[in-house]
Fold:
Amino acid sequence: MSRLSWGILGTGHIAEQFADGLAASDRASLLAVASRKIDTARAFADARRIPQAYGSYEALLADKSIHAVYISLPNSLHHEWTLKALRAGKHVLCEKPIASNLAQAQEMFAEARSAGRILAEAFMYRSHPMTLALQRTLADGAIGQLRIIRTSFVFSANKIAGNVRFSPELAGGSLMDVGCYCLSYSRLFAAAEPTSMTAVGHLHQSGVDDYVAGVLAFPGDIVAHFSCGITVRGDNTAHLLGTEGYIEIPVPWKPPAIDAEFTVVDAAGNRQTTRVSANTHLYALEADDMARSVLDGQPVRVTEADSLGNQHCLDVLRKQIGIPVP
Structure:
């Protein structure tokens, strides 16, 4: 088998982006999409020439021609439908964050091992070659010893009513929606789990955190600070600060297919910009990574330990700012 056959659970915006990525993938075939309403699923399928539309998630999971499922549902549904997909014999790429809490995430990975299937968390930026080039640049000592990681991921939602990000019941909030990227990025480049973490945040009238700032300490004298939000605006950049210079990453979360760039600034202020082209859709890179894991036996881009570590951080920080964690 050279191509991985996919089904998508959910028809929201992120499902649209992933479906577009599958269309550009070298190793994916998108066979079906499911929604709770058959008309919604059919409209999604017709717009993208997807062969099959299902009016229930169960119906898609019963389709034996589908070998991998992308779960794009609200955060609170990741646990339930990942377990059901694994038990139906599917490999699962689950949208971030992997679950609503650490205990759920642990159960999901335990089920994947029991089922002999691959479960991976969908942090698509990890698949872009720019992220890999940054890791090499840091390892080569371009900025000396890494000391500070600085990240921001914020946006101002146009719609609040009916927006899953503003629903406590659906495990919404800025930390879960975009802060998880900042935590993932910090942990990736620190190459360790934090030894301590602290956050302060604002609670929206809906009951979710709508903006948060946090600080993490890592082994090796590395610290990280981040800001995330769903009712504020910002530059959405990342910086890696070292003893001999620093790196600017203007578009860390959704690097473009062509000429994604980062700039190394040395101790004398000299600037050197590196441009990295993926030459394909960001979500196609993610899908092809999953295909290599399922079909070729290569390690997943985001490991179980990585996902569990990120979920642990989310649990701790949400509790600190007054969000009940189930």
Remarks:
- The domain at 129-277 is CATH 3.30.360.10 (Dihydrodipicolinate Reductase; domain 2).
